[in-house]
Write a structure and sequence with these properties.
alpha+beta, Rossmann fold, Tumour Suppressor Smad4, 2 domains, 14-stranded mixed sheet, two-stranded antiparallel ribbon, 16 strands, 35% strand, NAD/diacylglycerol_kinase_sf
């Protein structure tokens, strides 16, 4: 099997030793070419070229942002994507059930390749860009933007940094006094109005340490998209929702502060003025309108053998 290993050398968990060990392990039974990313968007270019060159699998050692870029390069092709956790949170790899240690995950990947544990999955598409697990619009994207402004600290204090950025954004960097966006599902005439929204292709939304942050348990790779809109960022209702997302989720599912939709094929989000948005954890700027749709069977994905069915 021909494998293209894309490495983001700047990712939080990537080390020179780890890269060598992983490349040797993959190369024991497969033909492996190793390439490194050097700039934003580079993984898309490398993955697209890998598909054009006939590689069977593109393995990505990096964070969720690098993985998203590679998925955009492979969408619509026959070349499969395989994640290895190299970032600080590794949401998608962990959602698939991979170990959070990249060398352990390589062992699981080799087992999957031996059994050809590959199947096609659907992806979300937002304004032409594919996403693997979610797109966030409004408050959470503003938090991600703040985290990226302090990116030099991310390798050493990711979860603490995110918590500090979230509180700082809530306290003084985000307008909580008025609705920021509207959500229209498909061709519906009704709209949901809120402070921020998340459209999910999988759940959990993220992880806090080892604990999943679950806001849409019905979001799986076997279904279309789920949409969660938060009406208000007032402290008490927001803290109740956040606490519920880290626990049973019962309050979140019943909260009048939360609007939920499942099995969504398309939606339109309009900001009341430009709103920030992030895709798979990468802040992409402020926009007025987002068109989101579900693309069925868009990507071939290597699954852990315990997850394939």
């Amino acid at each position: 099997m021909r494998i293209l290993l894309i490495v983001n050398p700047s990712a939080s968990s990537v080390t020179a030793r780890g890269r060598v060990v992983i490349a040797k392990a993959l190369g024991a039974d497969h033909q492996v070419r190793v390439v490194e990313t050097t700039h934003r968007g580079h993984a898309t270019e490398l993955a697209r070229q890998g598909a054009a060159d006939g590689f069977d699998v593109v393995v990505v050692l990096g964070g969720d942002g690098t993985l998203n870029e590679a998925a955009n390069g492979l969408a619509g092709s026959d070349t499969a994507l395989a994640p290895l956790p190299g970032g600080s949170t590794n949401v998608f790899a962990r959602t698939l059930g991979l170990p959070d240690d990249p060398i352990e995950a390589t062992g699981a990947l080799l087992d999957s390749l031996a059994l050809d544990a590959v199947r096609r999955i659907g992806l979300g598409v937002v304004n032409g860009r594919h996403f693997l697990f979610h797109v966030g619009i409004g408050f959470d994207a503003a938090v991600v933007a703040e985290v990226e402004r302090r990116g030099s600290l991310k390798r050493w204090a990711n979860h603490v940094l995110f918590g500090v950025a979230a509180f700082d954004t809530w306290l003084r960097r985000y307008d909580r006094k008025r609705p920021r966006l509207s959500v229209r599902i498909g061709g519906s005439s009704s709209i949901d109005v809120g402070q921020f929204a998340v459209c999910l292709n999988t759940d959990p939304y993220s992880y806090v340490g080892t604990r999943p942050f679950t806001i849409a348990p019905e979001a799986t790779l076997d279904r279309a998209l789920s949409v969660v809109t938060i009406r208000s960022l007032d402290a008490v209702p927001l803290l109740r929702v956040l606490a519920s997302a880290l626990a049973s989720g019962k309050h979140l599912r019943r909260s009048t502060n939360v609007i939920r939709h499942v099995d969504v094929s398309s939606l339109t989000i309009e900001g009341y003025g430009p709103v920030p948005y992030q895709v798979d954890g990468d802040y992409l700027g402020d926009v007025d309108v987002l068109e989101i749709r579900y693309a069925d069977d868009a990507l071939a994905l290597v699954f852990p053998v315990t997850q394939i069915h």
